[in-house]
Structures are given as structure tokens and as C-alpha cells.
# Entry
Amino acid sequence: MHTTIPRQLQSILGDEGMIADKNRRIPYECDGLAFEREIPDLVLLPASTEELQACLRILHAAGIPVVARGAGTGLTGGATPVKGGVVIGLARMRKILEIDPTNQFARVEAGLVNVDITHACDDHGLFYAPDPSSQTACTIGGNVANNAGGPHCFKYGNTSRHILGLKIVLSDGEILELSEPELDPSGYDLLGLFIGSEGMFGIATEVTLRLTPRAEVTETLLAVFPDLDQACDTVTDIIAEHWEPSALEIMDQLTIQAVEASVFSAGYPPDAKAVLLIEVEGSRPECEANVAGIEAIAKRHGIMEWRRAANDKERKKLWAGRKGAYGAMGRIAPDLYVSDVVVPRTKLRQLVRQTTDICERYDLKITNVFHAGDGNLHPNISYDRRDADQMRRVLAAADEIMRVCIDAGGTLSGEHGIGLEKRDQMHMYFEPEDMEAMLGVRDAWDPSGIMNPGKMIPVRACNEHRPLRFKR
Amino acid sequence: MNAQDIVDYTKSLDCVHCGLCLRTCPTYRDTGRESASPRGRIHMMRSVAEGAAEVDQHLIEELDGCLVCRNCESVCPSGVEYNELIAHTRSALADSPHRSLLSRESMRFGLRSVLTSRSMIDLFALMLRLGQRFGMLSLAGTLGKGAENLPDVPPAAERQRLAPVHPAQGKLEGEVAILEGCVMPVFFSHVNRATVEVLQAAGRQVHVPKGATCCGALQAHNGELETARQLAKQMIVSMEGPRDQTGDLLPVVVNSAGCAAQMKEYGSLLAEDPEFAERAEQFAARVKDFSEYLADEAGTRVAEALATDPPQIQSPLTFDDPCHLCHGQGVRSQPRELLDSVHVQRVEIDESESCCGSAGLFATLRPADSQRILDPRLGALRASGARTLVTANPGCQLQWQAGVKRDGLDVEVLHIAEVLQRSLKS
Ligand SMILES: Cc1cc2nc3c(=O)[nH]c(=O)nc-3n(C[C@H](O)[C@H](O)[C@H](O)COP(=O)(O)OP(=O)(O)OC[C@H]3O[C@@H](n4cnc5c(N)ncnc54)[C@H](O)[C@@H]3O)c2cc1C
Ligand code: SF4
Ligand code: SF4
# Structure
């Protein structure tokens, strides 16, 4: 990087807005996927869209790669820096700009943490529906870029269903103003294209999002199983019999034990082989009908225990355990690889079995905690990145897991995106022409290719067609 | 010094890098810098241990900027022992050449010499009071600069020490020892008196052992682990003095959350000490925060001792959890239970578990940073509508008092012992 560039950037951002020394750049070398690491040349922390725009103009002119970062909770290396590039963090842009309870939308800066929106509109009886388990940390911008899901997205849909507008700064600094809330955009649906673009199309700085009225009644239930298969089959039957819970989450025994040892201990029985966390919402009669129907199915599958949270406090406790589950795995090994695959919901039992077998074959510790209602599996592998052989086995197992899920009619990713982690598996699911078409869309948004280069589309596959400007 | 000595490497591996601690960290919220977040600080420490980073002033600055409020521990699902990680590294880096010599020396002088001896504290208090009265602090160089941020020292008459024994009122239900503290008698002798009176009213005979001065929390958090261990031993010995009629050791009741949190951790602090390891464990088990002890052991007796006509407390009141009470000791419900037995309406303040910026020496050493941490909390206080803010830690009380005064709010800041004292039947 030319020496004048940091100086120019600094004059825009001031001392608070830029990190140049190496030690303070180190925490930015990875996101939640800790084995992919690269220390960025600079970290920029703009405080406004205008500052960000001015920085991008300079970086664009100099051809310096840019990686956007929200909270760095991504699990696929989406926010991993690119060699010779800078990281632009949105953490200082976290204002709530507007809440319109009548029209049920809010306009916020992209660095706002997901859960802060729900806190802010609680008094109006509204909430922001997509609730990733990382919602107390991840940002709205990161959610948009990864089209994040969460337990309640089973009922309410992923992030894309809840975004009404965006303000985006493109790679050359141009501002794309799409922030007026629109239900049915005229012309091409640019929002739809941008959501899920993993930082490769531009950087979102403002997000207009849909707020959802709270249900009249919410019931949280816990079904305790002596056997993981039975928990899976219960979910399959709930779906097949058309019951409509708002969330269905399965945790296996190792997960239960890790959670129970943590500050989020939720009272899950440690001798259970699996628990199914269920939420139903709606009017009182709707809830009761759902609860009765689901309870009957669960009983058919031989539950050890059926619990119903008596009040808000108990509900929160049951959920806190689920949301803290990933972190709790830190008790098992220093690193956690969270796989994210989707399978047909008729085949839950079979694929949970298969993924477990794969990990056992590679002599790896696997835990299962997943959005069962969506068929979105998260086989989690606990490992230690300092052990090279173990690292190799983790990657091989992850590869096989994706393979069996796709073969069974599933997909590569449920909600965490592709990033670096699954980039080289894209060919399992897409033809080279598909990926070429995707690159074409990318080129339309960012002809310079400086935005998060090297992510999502495999380098080799595209080299056959046209070299990417930046290779990792 | 080699890298592995600077960092407790094994403890640093407990962090799985999930990021769930970011939002609750006040310094991350203030700056937006990951290097000023729990995950970032742990990441840098681990990098030092692995040889991927070398200590420099930037790294030290980020570690010094930590409030050690321990909010990150309360939300960490992986059970990272952040408090011990940071204490270890700060201690190893206390003499780092990347700090200025003057800051090293004045810090060491304060922590090793002044706070550890009663007579030095009294002398310092006298000098400070004179300096404050005659406006001479700005003439005294760096040390004076730090001291300018200290609160006003009350006149000698109000700095009275407690008598060694105070009898129970009414039927005797038990005996306790209390910690008088190092700076408490200087700035907060009224809180100490309130503590004793409330305990007496709850039927407790109160002992005030005189052999120990300071719990060592400030030392442990600011890179003086060895001094902290010495102080811990003195404390243990002194608190092994008084016994009840059956010869049993007494519960140690502490009205400063920061001190109680430290004293409860003597077990791990002295784990390697052959003579003290076991005594420290046993001592730690006897330590109780003031509200923890009263609510758990004497809840009904306290309620009976309180007047039913509204006492002289502005309504509504709110309780702001001191970090070292909620995060450090996991004590959350007991102060609220006690306050609910006082006949005044209680409201909750938003983010009550978030640090007020007092944080031990932080407010004194880094007044501007501390002010920025307090600002959003003052906003929350305003929004709560509370007219009495109740805390359970002297540092927090000073910090809130200063903030309330600066913003011109009509809010009285009281220690929970003072609230109970004012509510006692006369
Ligand atoms: C404990 C834990 C639980 C999780 N649970 C879930 C879950 O239930 N559901 C789920 O979907 N995910 C989950 N995740 C993954 C992760 O939290 C989500 O992917 C989240 O959306 C990432 O947000 P972030 O702010 O951390 O983004 P980052 O990790 O910082 O970035 C993610 C991607 O978004 C891009 N990006 C960030 N900000 C912007 C912006 N303003 N404009 C453009 N691009 C941007 C980055 O370049 C990167 O490609 C979990 C992660 C953890 C650690
Ligand atoms: S919550 Fe705990 S495990 Fe997660 S990043 Fe923070 S310290 Fe590490
Ligand atoms: S102790 Fe407090 S200031 Fe320090 S890292 Fe933890 S949350 Fe942040």
C-alpha cells in the first residue's frame, strides 16, 4: 500500500476511526471461523456513510481490496481479511434512526446489534423476527449480507423477508439509496439481489426493516427424549401433520451437558439423549390446539418428559440455553467448526445419523444443535486448530457431510453463507455456468472486484473462464 | 520475560471466539474497536503467548483500558475466566519498559506503600484534604494530576474509625465480622456506620477486626499480584481473630462489592501457597456481601425493623448493580429483595448490570474515558425516572454522585446500607 493512503484515510477518519499498528489489527484476522486467518493492513472504523464513502473512493482508486465486517460472528470466513487489504468495520455505526410503530418499520445503521432493535420496539408490542442464536452480538449489516436465519425463522422466514430498504455504498463510493420502505419495488428487486451477497456487492450502511407484532400468546415447551432418532422423527411428523409451531430446535446429549455446565444452564436433563425445544404462538385457542397436537406426537415417540414454561422467566431460560449452545462448546475444545447444511425434513433421522457416523469415522467429537423445523442441520465439530492432523480430519469430514446432504436432496448452506469455508464445495451444487453467471452479477455491482474478493466463488472453477482479479 | 509467562495460555484457550461477549463490553461499545473488547483482548493475549504478537504500548494501552467489570464473564457460555487472565497479564506487564517510568513508579508507590498501611492512608488523606482545600494539587506533578480526580476528603470529624465491637439490638441472633476497608473510613465512614447500625438492628453483634487494611483488589487488578497475596494473608489472619460464643469463626460481611468479590477469590489467589491455600478456601466461603448476608440470613428480621411510614428517601428508587456484585459474585436478587421491604416504590434502570465507569482506579487514572462510560448510564437513569439511585459499592457511589452533580439531576445516590439505616424504626 502506498504510504500516502493511510495518511489520507486518517485525515477522513481521525484517530478513533483507524487502526494502523499491528497488535490492534490482530483481533480482526478472523471471524468465528478461526482457522482462516489474515491480518489486515489497516482497519477502518467509519462513523458515517459519508466517511465510508470517502474512504472507498480512495481505496477504489488504489485498487485495494476491502472486507466489510459487522461483529465478526460469521462462521464461514466471510469477514476474514484478504491479503493486502483493509477491513472496514461498522461497529461505530449503530444508531437507531427511526422507529415507526404505526407502519411497523424501523430504520437503523448497519452496525446496530440485532437484539437492540427488539429492545427498542418492545414497548410498542413489536419485535424484529429474525433471531440468529448470535443475536446478542451480530449486526444487522452482517445479517443482511448472510441472509441470516434463526429459530423463529421457521415461522417468520429468514432476513430477506424482513428487509424493506437499504442504503448501500458501492465499491467506487457511489451511494445507492434504496432506503425508502417499499413492499413491492418497481423495476428489478435490487434489495433481493443484495441480501445474501456476503459483502461482495457493496457495503450496507442503513437498513430499513420490518417490525412484527408480538403474538397474543407464546408457549415454550420442552420435550425430553431418551433417543436422538425419536426427536428427529417427532419433528418430521409435526411437519407432515401440518402443525404450525414457530420454532423447533433439537439439541443432543453432549450439547445439553455443555450448556448445563455454562452460565446459561437451562435445566435440560443431562441424562437425556436429546431435547426438542418448541415454541407455538397465536391466539389462546390456536396455541392450545398446537400444543395438544404436538404433545400427542411427542408422546407417541416415547418422550421421558414434557415441560411447559410457566412464565416469561422460564421461557427466557429455556431459550438462553439454546442461544448459548455454540459458545458452550468451548468447554469441549478450543475451537468449534459449525457446519451448516439443509436436508429434506423427511430424512432428518437418517442424515443426523450419517453426519454423526462420518465424524466418528474421522475420530472427531461432534455435537448436534439445529433448527430442526427448517431441516437446517448444524453438525458441530469441536477441535484444536493447533493440531494439524486433526485440522485435516475436520475439513475432510466437513466435506463429506456436505456431500451426503446434497446427495440426499439438500443444499450447501442454510443460513451462514458460503464465505471461504464452503467456497470450494460450490461445485458440488452448481455447474461452472451457474457460477459464471453469479460472477456476472457480481461484476455488475462491483466491476473493480475489490469487494471481498476470493469469497464464495471457487477460484479454480472460474479461472477456467476468466481470472479473478484478486486471488487468496 | 518469556511469552508464556506473560499470558495464562491455558485459560486463553477457553475462548472459542464466538463473539457473544462483544455487545456487553462497555469499552467495545464506547470505541467500536475489537482490540478493546473481551474477545479481542483475549485474542491479543493468546497471540503473545503463541509468539504471533509482541508486547508494545498499543497492546498495553488496550489491556489497561479494560474496566475489569467482568460483564464479559456473565455472558460467556464457554466459561472463560477473564478476570484471572487479565490480572495475570497486567501483573506480568506492570514493569514493562513500554510504560513510562513515572507512571510505573507512582502506581507502584500507591499500590504497594500507601494503600497497604493504615497510617499511610491517613497521612495521604490529610495531605489530599489540604491539597484540595488550598488548590495545590495542580502544582504536584503527575501524582497530583491523578489526585485531582479524587473526590473531596471529608473533615477529620467525619473520618472517624469504628469501635471494635458493637452489641446487637434486641434479641441476639448471631455475630459477624465486618471489613472496615482501606479508603472506606476516609471517604465513607458514614456508610460504615450505617452498615453497623443495620446489622445491629438485625440482631447481630458486630466485630471490626483491626489487623487488616486492604483486601488487595486494586493491587490484583493493576498488576501487583504479589502485594495482593500479602494483603490477602493479612486479611485472613486478622479475620480469624474474632469468634462467636461457641468458638466458631464469624461470617465476614463486606459492604463494598469490589472487596467482597476479591475476598471470595482468595482461594485461587493463594492456591499455590502451602501455608495458606486451605485457610484461604475456608475464609472465602465465609465472605458475604452485605445484602447477600442480610437477605439470606436475616430477611424477616430486617423487614420487622423497618418503619412502615415512608422514610426520608425520594421515590422512586432504583438499584444499579455494581459489576463486582452481579458479575463478580452473582448476587442479583438479594439487594432487590431488601429494597422491596423498604416502603418506597422501586423501578428498574436499563442495563443495570453495565459498568458506571468507576472501576477501581479507572475513574481516577482515566477520567475522560470513565466519563464516556458513565454518559449512557446517566441517560438510562434519567429515562428511569428514579430519584434515588442505590448502589452497593463505594467507587460506584462516588462515580454516580459526581455524574448526577455534573448533569444537575435531582437524584440522591445512596449505599444500600444507608437506605436501610434511614428506614429503620426510630
Ligand atoms: C454463537 C453463534 C450463533 C450463530 N447462530 C446463527 C443462527 O442461528 N443463524 C444464522 O444465520 N447465523 C448464525 N450465526 C452466524 C453469524 O452470527 C451470522 O452469519 C451473522 O449474520 C453475522 O453477522 P456479523 O455482524 O457478525 O457479520 P460478520 O461476521 O462481521 O460478517 C459476515 C459477512 O457479512 C459481510 N458484512 C458485514 N457487514 C456488512 C455490511 N454492512 N454490508 C455488507 N456486507 C457486510 C462481511 O463481509 C461478511 O461476508 C451464529 C454465529 C455464532 C458465533
Ligand atoms: S463469549 Fe467467551 S468464548 Fe465467546 S468470544 Fe467472548 S470470551 Fe470468547
Ligand atoms: S472486564 Fe469489562 S471492560 Fe474488560 S473486557 Fe470484560 S466487559 Fe470489557
About this structure: Chain A touches chain B through 46 residues (CB under 8 Å). The CA atoms of residues 368 and 379 of chain A lie 5 Å apart.
